[in-house]
Write a structure and sequence with these properties.
Elements lengths: L10 H4 L19 H4 L1 H8 L10 E2 L4 E2 L3 E3 L4 E2 L4 E3 L2 E3 L4 E2 L4 E3 L2 E3 L4 E4 L2 E3 L2 E2 L4 E4 L2 E3 L2 E2 L4 E2 L4 E2 L10 E3 L5 E3 L8 E2 L4 E2 L4 E2 L4 E2 L4 E2 L4 E2 L2 E2 L4 E2 L5
């Protein structure tokens, strides 16, 4: 059973992961950031040196490296680059100039948009990072929308370990020097907002544009410049 001491910091608090194709990643995990520690091993066990293509549309000029598993109906637009190992779910669109690099799982019906970079992260079904986003060492829940220019920052400027602080102010050592956002299902983040390393957002939160967010927030919170 997952450790519930951290409350909002457990996978089951943030994600309905039981309906995710890759739910095995989350099962039995105590704190949600621990999922990222086993991501590379999980992807390696589901891919090999071949590029799998099943009814996909890789447009001229797109680059898909070996070790990338593409689900049926995936579209990769011109000049996008997917550098494996990676798993891209059914009907997901990887748009012009997108860059997906190493140890990424993208669920079904997602959008990875123009000038968006994703590394060592998980995006669950229906998540959208459509315009000029950075998603590093993060987990993005079902139906989450990152507005244009949203950045999930994954490294402190001091390059020290990322510490997560829960809603009661208790701190948790993650053992990670790179940890981005942990974003619950159906949360919406406004244009040009920045999530600082180790930020945790509950389900159905609303983040105003241009806000710099840090800490942990319960479900259904509205987060503006006065609440950070």
């Amino acid at each position: 059973m997952a450790n519930t001491e951290g409350g909002m910091l457990c996978p089951e608090a943030l994600f309905d992961y039981g309906r995710f194709e890759h739910k095995a990643l989350f099962e039995g995990v105590g704190y949600v950031w621990e999922v990222l520690k086993q991501l590379a091993r999980y992807i390696a066990s589901h891919t090999d040196e071949r590029t799998h293509q099943s009814n996909v549309n890789i447009m001229p000029g797109a680059i898909v490296s070996p070790g990338v598993l593409l689900g049926p109906g995936v579209v990769v637009e011109p000049h996008a680059y997917i550098k494996g190992p990676a798993i891209i779910g059914a009907r997901t669109i990887v748009r012009h100039n997108a860059y997906i690099r190493e140890n990424v799982i993208v669920g079904s019906d997602c959008v990875i948009g123009n000038a968006t970079e994703v590394k060592h992260s998980i995006l669950m079904d229906g998540a959208r990072a459509s315009h000029w986003n950075y998603v590093g060492d993060s987990i993005v829940g079902f139906g989450v929308n990152l507005g244009a220019g949203v950045k999930l920052s994954n490294q402190k400027i001091t390059h020290s370990e990322v510490i997560v602080r829960d809603v009661a102010g208790k701190t948790y050592a993650t053992g990670l020097r790179k940890l981005g956002g942990l974003i619950g299902d159906q949360t919406q983040i406004g244009c040009n907002a920045v999530l600082n390393p180790g930020t945790v957002l509950g389900k159905r939160c609303l983040v105003y544009p241009l806000v710099s967010v840090r800490g942990t927030y319960l479900h259904d919170q509205t987060i503006d410049s006065h609440s950070t």
